[in-house]
Amino acid sequence: MVVDAHIHYFDTPRFAENLVKEMDGAGVDWSCLMPTLEDSTWEYMHLTFKDVTNPFVLEACRAFPDRLAGGIRLVPTEPGAIAELRKFADTGFFRFVKLFPPQQLPADDEHILPFYEVCAEYGLPVLFHMGQTNGEYTEKQKRTRMHLNSAYANPIHLDWVAGMFPELRLIIAHNGYPWYLESWAVALAHPNVCMDISGSGPWTEGIPVVYTALGGAAFIPIDFDRVLWGSDNCLPQKESIARAVMYLRQMGANKQQRTNILGETARGLFGLR
Amino acid sequence: MIIDGNCQYFGKADAKDLLGRMDAAGIERTLLSASLEGAVIPGRGTPLSGVGNAEVASAVAAHPDRFIGCFHANPLEPGALATVAEYAAKGFKAVKLFTGEGWHPDDPRFHPFFDAVQDRGLAAVVHCGVANFGLSHEGGKRRALNAAYAYPMRLDAPSRLFPRIRFVVLHMGFPFLFEAWSVHHANKNVFLDLAGTGTAIDALPVGYAAVGGPAFIPLDFDKVVWGSDNASDPKAALAVADSYLRMMGCADAAQRGRVFGANAARMLAPAG
To answer: Any chain B CB within 8 A of the CB of A4?
Structure first.
């Protein structure tokens, strides 16, 4: 099974239908689809997002229940976040939760603990954007001085969360670029922590380059059975897979491990059939 | 003289065996540290319990010519200053600090704590980086250390403000090696610890060589201290550490020898 474990919902025409077509062409069985930050822009893609929240993801997953697995994105400290979490989790179309620390909310903020308790109760893994973000709020938000800050997205903040919730599966997106050492060390110390290789450019290409430069497994062994692949909308899935396989070969992952990374691990983690 | 500069205490039941292992490895003195209550050590069945400061004091009192006391203190606790006074009075030479308990050592709120440590001539042995052990959740209470508080760079200010304290960065702060090496290089009173075995410690020479070794940051091997961490047979740990040192460019056998004893003696004894 091939699973794209990191892809965002875009409010472009016929997004879900087009995604499934792309999946068919790339041999992808499932895509793990999550909201994008509303009222934000991805300048390098010339896209601005508005209608990209949980209800839109739910609609897409309902339309393609055997191809799209939903991710719930919430700001866990906002009033009503736990009720929203339960509401969407109870639909049965969501298989994970997505949190975005650059919204100035580090993962080890104590106010998030009740939210994590509910994630654990539902058995929902939590995917964290970790490291540098290249998203940005739109001008409308910036006028109120809202801004993103990648400083809050250091993966080291998951050290405490992973220890506090050993039953909760946590995923560090992008290997925490550029905080690779923190990501690798936290994953080494905690068996409930996974990492994904998703995106493009330095978000992905830096991973094998830095890992091998530092000595690879002799420096920090990576458990490749806790690594996931995702396209992150940055590249066509087929191309993203080809590049990821190359990165993984460079890092020393064997054929079976690469197969697991491309889908089998995600199948188990998200309970996909 | 070989000194084990970092050894966790696993309790009275282990004390006799520990002395036997020291004898077999030629270790004359061991800096014995209290462990955190409920620490879950990989490879040990049950969480550590009852191996706190009082138990270390008993072990040191029973074998004063072999064990040197290192007590644990948490500056966040109201009794921290009293703890420093109590164990310094008992002859302990060092305080063990876990910043992962949720505090930054460069926070001015802790100046009185470090004043007390400095005034009593103690060394401060600081666990930096990601811990390889967890804390028990017995009784349904969630507990964990937080490595976000354990960046070695946070020792830069205290080492300048409290120049008579000898700070020791345990495990070279893995994975924050660059910060550990840098703070050590910039501050005369910051030692690095080469303790334990396993993945995190194997990374030290590999990472150092990979980024250029002394061409990147020269280490002062006279401020490096070896410890067994009570993690493996100390004889084997000594052999492995000798290899690590050679791989890191410490070619001088006499200097390597000092890592295994003389440096710890200097770290534990205040100047003057």
So the answer is: no
pLDDT digits (tens, 9 = 90+) for A185-211: 999 999 999 999 999 999 999 999 999
Please work out, in degrees rounded to the nearest 5, the angle formed at the alpha carbon of residue A42 by the alpha carbons of A108 and A30. 75
For residue B25, give the CATH number of its domain: 3.20.20.140
Q: Touching check for A108 and chain B: CB below 8 Å? A: yes
Spell out which residues of chain B touch residue A188, defining contact as CB-CB under 8 Å. Answer: 130, 199-200
Tens-place pLDDT, residues B207-239:
999 999 999 999 999 999 999 998 889 999 999
Cα dihedral: A212, A215, A217, A220 (round 10) = -110
ipTM over 0.90? The verdict is no
Q: Which residue has the tokens 């396989």?
A: A245
Q: How confident is the model at residue A166 (pLDDT cuts 50, 70, 90)?
A: very high
A110 in contact with chain B, both atoms CB, cutoff 8 A? no
How many pairs of residues across A and B have Cβ atoms under 8 Å apart?
77
Q: Which structural domain range is residue B76 located in? A: 2-268
In chain B, alpha helices (H):
12-25, 53-62, 80-89, 111-119, 156-161, 177-186, 199-210, 234-247, 253-259, 262-268
- How far is the C-alpha of B127 from the C-alpha of B102, rounded, in Å? 12
Taking the CA of residue B190 and the nearest CA in chain A, the distance in Å comes to 23
Report CB contact under 8 Å: B206, A108. no
**Distance separating alpha carbons of residues A222 and A184, to the nearest angstrom:** 7
B207 in reach of chain A (CB within 8 A): yes
Q: What is the pTM of this model?
A: 0.90
Q: Are A219 and B203 in contact (CB < 8 Å)? A: yes
- B245 CA: distance to closest CA in chain A (Å): 16
| pLDDT of A142 strictly over 70 | no
Give the burial string for B61-86 (b: 16+ CB within 10 Å, else e).
eebeebbbbbbbbbbeeeebbebbeb
What's the total number of domains in chain B?
A: 1
Residue B50 has pLDDT above 90, yes or no: no
Task: Give the gap in angstroms from C-alpha A130 to the nearest C-alpha of chain B.
Answer: 14
Mutation for B interface: A192, A214, A223, most B CBs within 10 A: A214
CA-CA distance, A5 to B31, in Å (whole number)? Answer: 48
- Per-residue pLDDT of A170-184, as tens digits, reads 999 999 999 999 999
Query: What is the predicted pLDDT for the residue at B200?
Result: 81
Residue B42 has pLDDT above 90, yes or no: no
Instruction: Give the per-residue pLDDT at A141.
Output: 67
Could you give all domains of chain A from N- to C-terminal order, each with its CATH number? Answer: 3-270 (3.20.20.140)
Provide the token pair at B27. Answer: 């270790």
For A6-29, the pLDDT digits (tens) are 999 999 999 999 999 999 999 999
> By CA distance, what is B143's nearest residue in A?
A164
Q: State which residue of chain A sits closest to B210, comparing Cα positions.
A: A214
Q: What is the mean pLDDT of residues B89-107?
A: 98
